[in-house]
Amino acid sequence: MQDIIQKIENTDWQHICEKMHQQGYAIIPGLLSTEQCELLKANYDDAKLYRKTVVMARYRFGLGEYKYFNYPLPDTIQTIRTTIYTKLAPIANAWFKALNINFQFPSEHTDLLQQCHQNGQDKATVLILKYGQGGFNTLHQDLYGDIYFPIQVVLMLNEPDKDFTGGEFVLTQQVPRAQSKAMVLKPNKGDVLIFTTNFKPEKGAKGYYRVHMKHGVSEITSGERHTLGIIFHDAVS
Q: Is the overall model pTM greater than 0.90, yes or no?
């Protein structure tokens, strides 16, 4: 896992911070190798790794399937989740301070999970998603409980325009008293996309205000698309 930790440590986090403040998302290119992506996909059918499978059409979430991991998480996922959290916590705290929200996130991920568990949120939220042709994911937010971390990440496990077409990652920003703004992203295989779970602060004439954001996936027109979603808080169920 040392190579992953080193890549995270070598990332320009000042640049990531600026991008998150400006647009609510940022990309770390090439965190995972091709071999690491393929291993995560190869384990998709290993039932003992997962606690729950969701067929999206049943709940009108879209068309596709996703699985929530059990604890303990695989080493690769645990390493990424724990290491990246420490880099994102200062961003989250800056956002809450700007918006006058009286809550500060701990610097260590284990302390955030302890807060979740004390609130009855003790289920793992890391998930792997699989879409085939025609698959999509409706716009949504991943909150799962009263305690939530306002930033999450997605790791792309397939190569766009090679393994699949379509399937762009879509973020929408709900601008007050105006039409929503859409951002369409195409991260490459092995990239990490960091984005807001719920909202980001935006500076206005009278100080900062809250801009709500949602995310989803456009329709896959051919091939198969897998992603790994890392949410830093735990769930009630």
A: yes
